[in-house]
Each structure stands twice: as structure tokens, then as C-alpha cells.
Amino acid sequence: MAERSGVWVYAVAENAAADSVRGVRGVADGPVHTVTVSGLTAIVEDVPLDRFSESALRRNLEDLAWLEAAARAHHRVIDAAAGGGPVVPMRLATVYSGEAGVRAALADRATDFRGALSRIGTQQEWGVKAYAVPPRAAAPPPENAPPGPAAAGAGAAYLRRRREQISGHEQARQSALAAARTVHAALSRLAAQTRLHPPQAPQLSGNSDQMLLNAAYLLDGRQSGELAALVAALAEQHPGVRLELTGPWPPYSFAGLDEGREGAQ
Amino acid sequence: MTYGNVVQPSSGPTAYGSRTGGSHEPANLGDILERVLDKGIVIAGDIQVNLLDIELLTIKLRLVIASLDTAREVGINWWETDPWLHAGAVGGSGDRELERENRRLRERIRELEPGEYGDG
């Protein structure tokens, strides 16, 4: 190792994937290239250790702007690679001290990688989120109370109003959750596999409405139109939730080497 | 009604439809982070990787799971854990909360208006 550089790994694919990342710049703004061992190709970039050593990464990853740039670059390369065929995405910041380590990993895990690649095939990941529509829009305020016990005092009246208000909110919430559940069930029937991500915080989602469902679905690439139509139909059927469809994504949520069983249904 | 920002395959990064002004806004950072930090493959590699696990965990806690309150409120795996989904409307945490508040208020009212609310 003459140069002080490490190797950042983006994804593992079949041989053919090399073409799809030609000219793509990576996290260090360098060219992306490939390392191939007996038919398995790692998509990698040489990264300078002054910015990508363990200590430098530790520092840099704490910097949100740096993290965002790295995450977007990592995703950009994987996305480009996925355009050329099935890929198994690596987690952010998978860094080796040299190509030898990458070759060893490809050889050691060859069976797992091939299994994951064949499982993914031509399938793509899509994301669907459901947000609760604010109650005032979804349900009328519970104003007209049923006739309570006659001669109830102000305290009892307050109690009744408060109870109705809470149960109104609860009803709106429950019906939104039920709608999200129905949406997920319907989409799961179309998908080969599903994964549930934790709902995102408003500052991450960029949306102040409460996220109730944050799911990923694995579908064959040819089903994207069918999926979009189903999401549109579900959105119409369930005005209590707002649906958001994203994708196609590289199969981040489904490529796990040890996740063959989980979530398959 | 918005139901989504559908993006056609093959158009570079899986961009959302332009959500702000005319600029072509790339995918939501949260969507990317939860995937590249949490979902990509972890392969045992150099020491760097193992140590980074720790670091990534703190980042996840700080950023991605910054949604902890939301997640807890709806149940982080609400699909499996939400009592409503299993027990219907009865016995859900929302009902328990409602019950508790009702009991509290009833007691308070009994104190303030002994004659009004009976001894129900």
C-alpha cells in the first residue's frame, strides 16, 4: 500500500454491473470502480484516509452536512449500480484498508451474496408512508352532545365534554390507524415481501402530520404501474390518511444476507 | 389529495417529484438515512467497520430514531404490538387512558359538587 487510502464498498453485484457505474462519482468525489472475484463484483471507491480513517469518519459522521452528503453519494452510486441489474447494497461506511480485504469478503461470503442476488432478481423496493390527516379535517368536532343527566352541574358537563372530546380524538386516531392497517394489508398482498420501518420524526419526514405507516415493499419491476394505481385507489378509499409513494429504491430493506425468511410471506 | 410522489425508474437517484419550487429535489434525507444506515448489508470487514457500528448507532439514535416519541406513541412495531390490532377497540391503551382520566375527573367532581354527581 503506497498510498494512504482505503476502499469504500457500495454494493455487490454480478459482473455486468460495472458498466452502470462508469463515470459515477462517489463519497470522496472520486471515480467508482469495481473489484471482481469469480463472478461477484464489488462496486468500490478508493477513499483518502485523512477523511475516511476510523477517527476521521467518527468525526465526520457527527457532522450532519457531511453525513447527508455521504449518504446521498452512497445512495447515488448504489442506485446507479441497481440500474444495471440486481445489487446487494452495503451499509454506509463499509470501509476496507485495501482491495485485499474486499476480495476476501467477496470470496468468504460468495454463497450468501449469490443467494441474496438471486432472491432479489428483477425486484425493486418501493416505500409507502401513511400520515394521519389532522382530525379537524378528518372528523367533525363532537359538539352536539347527547342529552346528559338532567341538572348536571358545570363540573359534570365539563366532564362529559372532555370525555367526548377525547373519544373523538381517539376515534379519529383509531380510524386512521385502521386505514393504515388496511392500506398495508392491501399492498402486502401485491408485494413479494414487506418491511416496516419506524415512523419518521416530523423533522426527518419534512411533514408535520403524524406518520402512522412507514413501509417498504418488494415488487417485480413490471408491477410499478399496478402499485401506483393501487396506492391511488387506496388513498381515495381512505381519506383519513394521506399516502406517499417513493421509489423505486435499490432493495436496501430486502437484501439482508440473513433475512431470507423474515418478512417473506 | 396527495397520494404520492411517484418517480419513474431509471431517472438517476430515486428523486421525489419536485416538492419545492422548480428544483428537482432528490429523495428525502430521512428515507435515505434509514436505508443506508440501518438496512444495508453489514459485512465483517476491517476494524474500522466494527468500531463504526458504535458510531452509527449514536447517529441513528440522534437522527433516525429521533422519532422515538412518535414511534413509542404509535408503538414502534405497531403492526405487531398495537393492542387495538389484536383486541379490537377494547382494552387498548387509549381506552385505558380515557378510563383513568374519567376516574380522576369523577373523583374531583365528587369533591367539588358532592350533591351533583351522586355516588355513581
Give a verbal description of the structure:
The complex is a heterodimer of chains A (265) and B (120). Helix content of chain A is 42%, strand content 23%. With 265 residues, chain A is an alpha+beta fold. Chain A folds into two domains: 5-120, no CATH class; 123-249, Alpha-Beta Plaits. In chain A, strands 1, 2, 3, 4 and 5 form a five-stranded antiparallel sheet that branches. In chain A, strand 2 (33-37) and strand 3 form a beta hairpin. The longest helix of chain A has 37 residues, at 154-190. Chain A starts with a strand and ends in a 16-residue tail after the last strand. The model of chain A is unreliable at 259-265 (pLDDT under 50). Chain B has helices at residues 29-36, 47-62, 68-74, 78-81, 83-87, 93-112. Chain B is mainly α and 120 residues long. Chain B starts with 28 loop residues before the first helix and ends in an 8-residue tail after the last helix. Chain B is elongated and about 70 Å long. Chain B has six helices and no strands. Chain B is 50% helix and 0% strand. Chain B has three domains: 1-27, no CATH class; 37-76, no CATH class; 82-120, no CATH class. At the A-B interface, strand 1, helix 2, helix 3, strand 5 and strand 6 of A face helix 1, helix 2, helix 3 and helix 6 of B.
